[in-house]
Amino acid sequence: MPAFDLPLEELRRYRPEQPEPDDFDAFWTGTLEEARAVPVGARFAPFEAPLSGVEVFDATFAGYGGHPVKGWLLLPAGGEGPLPAVVKYIGYNGGRGLPHEHLLWPAAGFACLVMDSRGQGSGGSVGDTPDPVGSAPAHPGQMTRGIGDRDGYYYRRLFTDAVRAVEAVRAHPRVDPSRVAVTGGSQGGGITLAVAGLVPGLAAVAVDVPFLCHFPRALRVAGSGPYREIAAYLRAHRDHVDAAFRTLAYFDGAHFAARATAPALFSVALEDTTCPPSTVFAAYNSYRGADKAIEVYPFNDHEGGGPFQTLRQLEWLPARCAGPATAGVAVTGAGRAH
Predict the structure, then answer these.
(1) What's the confidence (pLDDT) of residue 328?
(2) Checking DSSP bridges between strand 68-76 and strand 83-89, what pairing results, if any?
(3) CA-CA 20 to 30 A from 198: which of 24, 125, 286, 299?
(4) Could you tell me the residue ranges of all domains in the chain?
């Protein structure tokens, strides 16, 4: 389809006023402190897979509420530690899938932890992690589950799981905790931004066509995809508009980006009606780290750069994760960098 959003020269300057909750940092600090009251307890059980180039482990760790979260850990076969690592987050409705779907980063010499997405995993790739928390009436999908209350919103649990995934891989004896990167596309990109704003000491952040950014504009211009779930919910619950936007302000990728300092590589597609380019640039232009770049794909929709962006990441990320192994990296709560 033709470009539908702002012209590229305007997108590169796009910095909308996005008021954030006064207690944004306190909310996330408290959320993570509550989660850390339960030890992460990461377990990595050897998994028999017909793959000769990698070692595969069935991973389990404690996420939000101490709930068990599944994942895959893949290590280069026969490699010595400590290794740099990539934590990979999955797109909307996908799950951790099967180990052979995640061979890229082990082939490049990285440990790779693939986090399952609780309550998802029935669209595109299978999942194995239930979400034991219910919610008030919601539109089908995840976007409106608990949307009337920040404490019960689905993405509070998923973002907490994602932070704990970094803590889990940092605890592995063959991983260098100072050389951990995070990556994902679409929903996985939105999760990546949240983790970038919540976890200090990351080596790099790779964010592709991110979802969960600049909700007020996304709901006005997105023509397809999960943002429409919120619109459908609010068409029915006409009296919940203000409450919904109050909740969403705690989960906006642009607010997390303003707290993130790790080197970052973004991608955006100018014909993307699922994650409109203005919402991606709102997060990118807010990103606090000085070492940042964005790859622009003018004629692509939500598939974005695909293998071309993967190649760009393979060229970019190893340099950010290079360097000698160091002692453990402390993981603390949220907080805007000053």
Answers:
(1) 38
(2) unpaired
(3) 125
(4) 8-16+44-320
Mean pLDDT is lowest, of 133-147, 156-170, 233-247, 295-309, for: 133-147
Band (pLDDT 50/70/90 cuts) for residue 319 is very high
Residue with token string 């976007």: 143
**pLDDT in the model for residue 334:** 38
Percent of the chain that is helix, strand, coil (3-state, to 5): 35, 20, 45
Q: DSSP alpha helices (H): ranges in the chain?
A: 8-11, 24-36, 104-107, 154-170, 187-198, 215-221, 227-236, 241-248, 253-257, 277-286, 306-320
Distances (CA, A) of 11 to 101, 227, 290: 34, 20, 18
Q: Burial code of 163-172, b = ≥16 C-beta within 10 A, e = fewer?
A: bbbbbbbbbb
Residues recorded for the chain: 338
Classify domain 8-16+44-320 by CATH number.
3.40.50.1820
Active site residues: 186, 272, 302
CA torsion sign for 115, 120, 124, 127 is positive
Answer whether residue 3 shows pLDDT above 70: yes
Comparing CA positions, the residue from 187, 182, 144, 138 lying closest to residue 163 is 182
Question: Does 132 score more than 50 pLDDT?
Answer: yes
How far apart are the C-alpha atoms of 209 and 303, rounded to whole Å? 8
Contact 76, 83 (CB under 8 A): yes
Q: DSSP for 78-125?
A: T--S-EEEEEEEPPTT-----GGGG-HHHHTT-EEEEEP-TT--BSSS
Task: For residues 278-300, give the mean pLDDT.
Answer: 98
Distance, in Å, from the CA atom of 155 to the CA atom of 145, rounded to the nearest integer, reads 9
Q: What is the mean pLDDT of the chain?
A: 93
Give the residue numbers of the binding site for substrate.
92
